[in-house]
Amino acid sequence: MLFLLCFLLVHLSGIACNFATDKEALLSFKSQVIDPQNTLSSWTTDSQHCKWYGVKCSNIGRRVKSLNLRGLSLSGKLPSQLSKLTYLHSLDLSANSFHGQIPPDISYLSLLNILFLSSNNLSGTIPPQLGQLKRLHSLDLSVNNLTGEIPSTLCNLSSLKYLAIARNHLSGEIPTQIGNLGNLSQLQLSENDLSGQLPSSLFHISQLTYLSVTSNNLSGKFPASLGFSLPNIKNLSLATNRFEGPIPHFISNSSQLEYLDLSNNFFNGNLPLFNNFENLVYLALGNNSLSSTTSLNSQFFDSLTNSTKLQVLILYHNNLAGELPSSIQNLSTKLYWFCVADNFLTGKIPQGWKKLQNLEFLSFESNHFSGELPSEIGSLSNLVELTIDDNVLSGEIPDIFGNLTSLSIISMAYNQFTGRIHQSIGQCKGLNSLYIGMNKLGGTIPKEIFDLPGLVGDGRFLTNESSEYSTQSYSIEVDNHSVHHWRRKAEECVDAVIRVGLSCTAQQPKDRCTMRDTSIKLQAIRKSMLAL
């Protein structure tokens, strides 16, 4: 009995000592950070720390179990006193303005399950000591200024399910031991300066549902031996790297995919097929060197007809050739983005667009399409952008604008359209860019165009000013204001090119413009220059 009493006294005194230490550690933390919103005003010496803002305690012993100070505009360095909160299971200091290095002493928090330090200004390397947090299942260090390599010790965290270190300045190769993280479900490494190949062990993590390595300097081919890898992958983004060779074969077996972005690489070979991808929502294969023929186009689009959830289909800047099949009309009715720009496609633009009523962005520009523009496009009342410039389309532009009241951009330049612009274009109240130059249009400019506030009312320009009308049937008086307008627009184009160049050559990969954004910006500049 005496022994039991002594044990209880020692145990209770230990608990009292521990929660007192927790309180002291929190007060020390408060004294070393800047709290502009005064959110930590409840943290006082004469109040219970378990009732403080952002603090949760255990039911027994009043030990600090969770500290959540997310998004409070706190700043300063991360105090090492955090390591004294030895009962801590969850620490979330994300979305603040902390700077300096991550304290290696955080590794003393041996019970930690969750560590979120994302969206701060933290710098230096990732402490290899974090690999000692054996119970950690969620680690987020994204959106900081961390440098150096990914410590291989992180691959010792066998309980880890979520690892995010995207949008930093990390370099070197992805550790080959990454495959040791057998429970990993999400891996976010995008927007760093990582190089080398993806470790083959990565593809043995069968639990992986999310993998993003977008915007790095990764390279290499994917071996055919990866045929049945990543069976549960739902989100896969390899975009904006230097991968080459055929589209990875394992993708054809990843039927759970919802989001697939392989754009801005050097993939080649034929367009892959996507049979039985019922959950696919986003498919981007743009800016590669993929090839096709009329027959392959038919097989490709036929394979997507089972993807009834598909919303985005991006195939721009490849080597696609041949004609588009009529089966495009059988694509998902949820499709809102369709882009096959900058390829070598021929023949007529197929009919059947009236079935795709959710389309907002429709792009056929820079191909070899011929024939007339399908009048069915006029039924797409949600259309925001229609770009069909730089083809050999002919005939009269159909009277399609009356129902396209959401249109913001119409780009039809560099074709062989004849006839006139219909008055119904005046119904496009949100129109701010109209490119119809270098055609064979005649007649007079509809006065309704000049009533469109976004096009002319705020100083934006109508790109139909002089030589675009090869029939000479349009006449626009050139005055000093027009000359000044031309010079101003020319200067803006030059300035825009310089800014794109600077953004592409930024020292840090995080600050560089992606290939997709660069392509979009250069296309916009090109259109502006054509309008001069």
UniProtKB/TrEMBL annotation:
Signal peptide span: 1-20
Membrane-topology descriptor: Single-pass membrane protein
Localization annotation: Membrane
One Gene Ontology cellular component: membrane
UniProt main location, coarse: membrane
Family: Belongs to the RLP family.
Protein name (Swiss-Prot/TrEMBL): Uncharacterized protein
Organism of provenance: Arachis hypogaea (Peanut)
